[in-house]
């Protein structure tokens, strides 16, 4: 595998660098999805997810799919045609979540912000009313690196419209940003495997509160999806957690082994430590970006994520040139994704082992590659 | 990884045993889904899939998900509410495909057969009419091991109702049974990675004919799914095939590397040879089963699959006893799956490298484990 020998550090906002033990789990030999060796691995992974999401009774659901599938699960299981959804939009992923909700018949109201900003609590409060079945918050919009204040928004919703379900898109936040399902009264937090969870892409992972499950059970209309329907997945999750095999669709066995390995690593240190580490490394990266005189996509560091950094190219630097130059130093960073400014900025991911295991020097190498590359391209800084 | 040292041969009808190089690809280090190293791997895999499905212009679609997701793709992209679908039912998977089609608004007519049998051409002809938007055929029903004669059915449909789309569930057949998309005029063949494709579970793979794509494009109503909508996936497939990166949802990078490795292996010998090998090994296994005096679930060998064998337990043998005894000889075979007879039969998978690389002795070891186990349990044969 020549690609392995010339490996370039993958410092994009997902997929992130994976631990060697996680990769070894990915190559677990063929194992039956209902075998005595696999069942406890899946069962334990479900239990460990509760720890990562800080919930006692939330129901983890793990399905073969991309993170995107989590939107379908929310939209098809929790919304009935004609019901109202309030979408807080801080970038590309807010747009897409809104589009997904509409496909399943939701009437969507969006609270949009300028690129690099997030809806203010006042704007959210103004838009919020008891007519909304659910509100969605993109915790970190991977396209802009903007961080939402989930805790404050959840408190606001509890006060102003306590029956509104609180749904968090945590694809780019779970494992890197503080998130507490029970304490913050969240109803769904959805994520994917390939970011701070530290597992190759291919798992759609979510937690549903007891209230969310009840809402699903109380539906008056049938779930308008087959693959995404919780009617199929809940019995599977219950079965594996009680250490029994059961079949709906073949689970992605190797990815579940990898998930188990990574969740054990994640839960081996206090989550508080993990979040602090991500904050500290984020500060380190952002301090360098500032010292280079570059401009963040988020309008301030207060609204910036801790697991990634989105930065405008300095004037005169061509996107392809910088990305290629950085790659020539064996570090891969990402281009822009938000349609309106895609060619104007780049993104650096700093999540998972790149953050929690500083001895790997991923962050140092990334900073060095970026700094040198800018210099090579003739950018002299501020 | 202790599970690796005590590996038991996985001889169930999927997941099958995986080649070492495929497993090595599964542990490919983190790689950006839009990087110059990954894009050609995905692009080439799309091209290689055309060879495996024997089609020139069919459109491969590869999505993160279980095989089940293929039903959602068919039902949500090709059927509009109120349209008619004819489902040929030869087991559990026919039931489920019908259920999926109904979720998306299809009016489903089923042609059912007795367990172990398949609808006859006469029964299909009697049920078939031009009112059907599509007909679905389970090529091999994994629950019963019954093989359908796709070629003959497709010819019948072309004669009697040429506008009806022909959809084949090839989850348990692609790579082990002869299937020719263009020559047989098939419109969709869907499959999954973990059977004769030889890649760990987590990929939903299908081929759509130009006519199927046109049917999708001509829809009068919006696609009632977000994740399964071809509107999102077709541009992605086109982009990667033309060696460009594009984003809808993060592809399962490691699984795609593994797919690429396996497809190269599969296409390195003529498909005819591959199908012959599967027939020969199937005969070998079935001859042993017969010589032991055991009864097949399929009513005759003519309607039995070549990639698996479903067998009733002999009288007096408890299901758990036999499966455990076989496992004690380091071979895993599967219990029953069809609800009506689940506790009465077992299933052996013989697909992929276990068939094409006889030097591995997987088949010999499986036959020995089964024969010895039956003897150990006091079964003396006919």
Query: How many H/I helical runs of chain A?
Result: 14
Strand fraction of chain A: 15-25%
First and last CA, distance of chain A = 42 Å
Please identify the structural class of chain A as seen in this structure: alpha/beta
Quickly give the CATH architecture of the largest domain in chain A: 3-Layer(aba) Sandwich
Mean pLDDT of chain A, as a whole number?
96
- Give the low-confidence spans of chain A: none
Radius of gyration of chain A, in angstroms, nearest whole number: 21 Å
The helix content of chain A, as a percent range, equals 25-40%
CATH class descriptor name of the largest domain in chain A: Alpha Beta
Spatial order of strands in the largest sheet of chain A: 2-10-9-8-5-3-4
The name CATH uses for the topology of the largest domain in chain A is: Aspartate Aminotransferase, domain 2
> For the record, what is the CATH homologous superfamily label of the largest domain in chain A?
Type I PLP-dependent aspartate aminotransferase-like (Major domain)
Binding site for substrate (chains A, B): 347
Domain Aminotransferase class V (chains A, B): 29-346
Organism (chains A, B): Funneliformis geosporum
Keywords (chains A, B): Aminotransferase, Pyridoxal phosphate, Transferase
Key descriptive features of the protein:
homodimer, 382 residues, alpha/beta, Aspartate Aminotransferase, domain 1, Aspartate Aminotransferase, domain 2, 2 domains, seven-stranded mixed beta sheet, three-stranded antiparallel beta sheet, 14 strands, globular, PyrdxlP-dep_Trfase (chains A, B), Aminotrans_V_PyrdxlP_BS (chains A, B), L-serine-pyruvate transaminase activity (chains A, B)
